[in-house]
Amino acid sequence: MPDLSATFVRLHARLAPVAFVPEVRLHQADEPIGLWELTEGEFHSAQPPPFWAFAWAGGQALARYVLDEPTVVAGRRVLDLAAGSGLVAIAAARAGAAAVRAVEIDERAVAAVALNAEANGVRVTADHADLLESDTADTDAEVILAGDVFYSEAMANRMLRFLLRSARSGARVLVGDPDRAFLPRERFRELATYEVPVPPALESVRVKRTTVWELNPARPGASR
Fold this sequence. Notes:
Layout: H1 2-12, E1 14-17, E2 25-28, H2 32-38, H3 57-68, E3 77-81, H4 87-94, E4 99-104, H5 107-119, E5 125-128, E6 143-147, H6 153-168, E7 172-177, E8 188-197, H7 200-203, E9 207-215
Parallel strand pairs: 3-4, 3-6, 4-5, 6-7
Antiparallel strand pairs: 1-2, 7-9, 8-9
Helix pairs in contact: 1-5, 3-4
């Protein structure tokens, strides 16, 4: 399956610079809707939608922040959670992280991460796994990065539980989010905001205002 997944990525996505992070090249789909339909992205099957084929706003903003503020990850063990294309993981590796692990539940995404890391000349460990129901013993990450993960209520609830456990165990948690409906803003503090170019076919706009947030592990209203 890994070889088939890599072949699929090469066949349906073209290596090109990322709009807001041109230092990084990714395998990206030229025509998003066609690929989405090809992979039955409306959840008509068990195959996850091809999130790996697009540079989503949250990931672009988070990658930009990491490259502009490399001390966030430099010399640290980093986890890119729900990594998609691996954009954020690649940015962390370029910024000097000691080790970078990118985790995805989609085997094609794992293949895309590996191909994209190789194309950018960085080392990223790409893993096929679902960490969200596990405890923090499954990761030794000092920094956890997650781009555009609060897009549905179910995903947001699972993600927040894992991120809170990780933060309370000592990890620093940063997320990139373009004002998705299910981001629990009361749990975060703002670090930076960008105007990020996005594919109109996916977002219905050409630019999305996107914020990088840091998770506060304390309960809302409590001092940090």
